[in-house]
Model the fold of this input.
Amino acid sequence: MTTGELRGPQTSAWTRRLSRPAGPVSLGTPSLRVDDNNAFWVREDVLGDLPGARVGEGYAVSRFRESRDESHAPSYVRDQRARLAIIRNMPLWDVEAERSVTISEKFGALGDRYDPRAMRTILASLLQRDRSYEPELQASVSAVVRGGWTCADVGAHHGVFTRLLADLVGESGHVVAFEAILGMLVGCVGHSRPAVVQGSPS
Amino acid sequence: MNLAVTDGASKKVRLHRGRGRASAEWNVVGADLEGRPTPAEFEVNATSLDSYFADGNFDFAKLDVQGAEASVLRRMRRLLSESRPILAIEFHTETGWAGRHDLLDAGYELRTPGGVPIDAGPGAQRVYHCLARPL
Done:
């Protein structure tokens, strides 16, 4: 598979570029609009009474399920840290330095927010939510799978069974999760048990 | 690395929507769960379980493959006969349900998650969640 290419400017970088030499004022991302998640720029000489916003203000985190993975498939990831985890090693074009960088190189501080403690918090909330998913099947799987086993989760989707299996097989076991849309499995990243995440069907 | 698990006949498969525009349930069978054809949206790498685990095996597998059950089971015959794993399977469609014959041929029995034996012979009604164990 070829590495997909995601295109989209970082809003602040775009604003700085537009602002040279006497540029438009960013109105930011309208957080109250729910029909889209666009940013608007208006030239100062026609701004009139409209409130402007400085770079860094007025941005809203997208509430839409529009996240994509490296093959441009929908990942359906909403959590900002999980989104960063998916794209952190992707190439970015730095319009100011005019060179290619990665998210983690350019925004080390942002990358740092994706830390193991934060991941454990996310995992804890996922495990809580997991319990209500197909409880009868989970119960029968729990009754069957033993510590030390090797398990395959074929069509792992969001990884509910991957996490269950990883807990059941313990440190000496292995879980291989297959999911064609890898972004689905972001909740398994950093799991303390040996979950080998490979991709899958659907 | 993203991998679709299928019959392994092709190195690449196309993924189709399974349940409407907002669905997160993609499949390789080319139709939604009601059998209506849906367009292919993107392509991913594919493998079969027999080739992926060519030098290994596993004790248990959960299969939730959105209607491609028969394809996946067809290309895990070696694992079924040699590794004899226990399987938890979601049979999403009638086409997928036909894949139970590979399990029966390999000497497996089907039960509900609650442990009730399932009649899986010719013409048997599809059961959504099955636990398959080697006899």
